[in-house]
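ligand=zinc ion
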Amino acid sequence: MSRITFQSLSRRNEIGCNSYVLEMGSTRIVLDAGMHPKVEGQLAIPNFNELRDLIVDAAIITHAHLDHSGCLPLFQRAHPEAEILMTEPTAALVDAMLHNSVNVMQAKREQHNLKDYPLFVHSEIERHERSWLYRRIGIPFYLGKDQIKARFYDAGHILGSVGVLLEKDGQRVFYTGDVQFEDQTMLQGAEFPQEHVDVLIMETTRGNAARRPDYTRDSEMVRLAEAITETIAKGGSVLIPVFAIGKTQELLLMLHEMHRRGLLPKHAPIQIGGLSAKMTALTDKFADAVRRHHHGVKLSELEDLVATQKKKGPARTTYAPGRIYALSSGMMTEKTASNDFAFQFLDNPKNALLMVGYADPDSPAGAILKAQPGDAVTLDQSLAPITLRCRVEHYDFSGHATREKLVEYAKKLTPKKILLVHGDRPALTWFQDHLTEALPASEVIIPVPGDILPLMS
Ligand SMILES: [Zn+2]
Ligand SMILES: [Zn+2]
């Protein structure tokens, strides 16, 4: 038996800059190196100072969303000794995300006078990525001095996403990363280990909301198709804010299915732009190589559907009626295509803003959801508010597991300890209460950021 400890480098218990340190014997492994999506400057970075003067053997990046990968260049700058491991699709997406992040930070530097932005530059990403190591799902590999046995499992969350199982002397630790157990339109649900583990480190994103009991993904899709059809018939357009990776591609395939089933008007071009277009091209690159539905179908070849904006960078999308705009980011954060486009869009009562993913209450998308028709909403702190006059609706096509499915999964693994991460306070508390009741023999812990938590001795 060897000593195992856990430390969260996140700054608060929330969905922020995810990064965790696991020590197994004398091997030190960092799980994810995210950047906080809502905070600027040093507070957006995990507390890597905790690792100062320490050797890190390896860092594992579970998937390409920025809250898991966005500070990887800063980690690598401080720890050139660490092996960096991820799947090949994740590496392709992380590369594109990080380069885009440099551009976003440059824009913010000018606007908000953030002197230390960008936190890293393009050439640094290029230098670091030469040392990234690709590992396949399902094939064990070994880490550090103790030769910790590691294995990736498909997490069903976005292209390339994994959970990781780490084993030493018969002790098993599993980190879910972000997970979806149910099938999405493109991605198949997670294939996670089903046997006992000693420690389960689990995401809790959806802990604060139950799903409607009558929910089905198909009825949700039909409801979305109806809203699009009605809006276009009235002479308006539809804006669907989407995460550049994951939700954009899921939505394109969903629209493709709607077309095939005759649920959409014939002539309703779909426009994607900027980062979403790039991420869609990368998804196509792996169309034959990953476990998914519509195997081999290339989204950018669905010519009847996609009118891709070919311009590079954050080019402005201009409004036209009768169109479907699928623009990133999903939460309409400042300096992104969906935020910028909303200034031409929200005050027109013919239009419809249809949200298909999680919207943090503090984000511009969250502010719009809380607003009433006729209210002035602030989209960008440095610009004047805009009056909300268009239709607004929210749909549930989450890339995250429901809380019920996560509890069910934890019960199957009967872990000695469950560590709850990647959730806001009410979500963490819901899981702590329900897991404590469902698994009385397990210790359910909300790790305090910074504290070194002994798990096994
Ligand atoms: Zn994610
Ligand atoms: Zn996440």
